[in-house]
Backbone:
């Protein structure tokens, strides 16, 4: 935590942008340093995530990459996942995001494909809420990794 709290603001913002692709979000978190502990930083990240405008959310989503498969996965699996991603992006207009923290790597492909299929049944508003929650979860995991690596 100490390192994160003491680096120059621009460096903190750049690191935070790797966690969540909204400049407004990253600036806000960097500006409110120092944080007494990781829990306080995570709470601030959640709060900032809830306060995002649609433009900020779109910016963060544009920075995300859809989860894929290991290159050695069967060709048919790559095709199925590519088709699922395409259907999702066509319906909702952005990449599919899902937080896989706590899921074994071997189970990632099944979780991603099942997640896309289930979420394709959502209407746009339902999916906006689920996507925002998944983005916050991704950001939390990335922040934990960022702070623990310093």
Residues:
């Amino acid at each position: 935590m100490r390192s994160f709290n003491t680096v120059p603001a621009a460096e903190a913002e750049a690191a935070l942008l790797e966690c969540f692709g909204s400049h407004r979000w990253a600036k806000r978190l960097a500006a409110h340093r120092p944080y007494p502990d990781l829990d306080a930083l995570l709470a601030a990240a959640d709060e900032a995530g809830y306060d995002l405008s649609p433009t900020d959310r779109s910016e963060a989503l544009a920075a995300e990459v859809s989860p894929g498969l290991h290159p050695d996965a069967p060709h048919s699996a790559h095709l199925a996942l590519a088709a699922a991603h395409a259907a999702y992006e066509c319906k909702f207009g952005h990449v599919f995001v899902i937080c896989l923290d706590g899921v074994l790597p071997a189970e990632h492909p099944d979780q991603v494909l099942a997640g896309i299929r289930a979420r394709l049944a959502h209407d746009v508003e339902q999916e906006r809420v689920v996507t925002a929650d998944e983005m916050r979860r991704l950001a939390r995991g990335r922040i934990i990794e960022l702070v623990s690596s310093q």
Observations:
- The chain has two domains: 2-59+144-148, 64-132.
- DSSP finds eight helices and no strands in the chain.
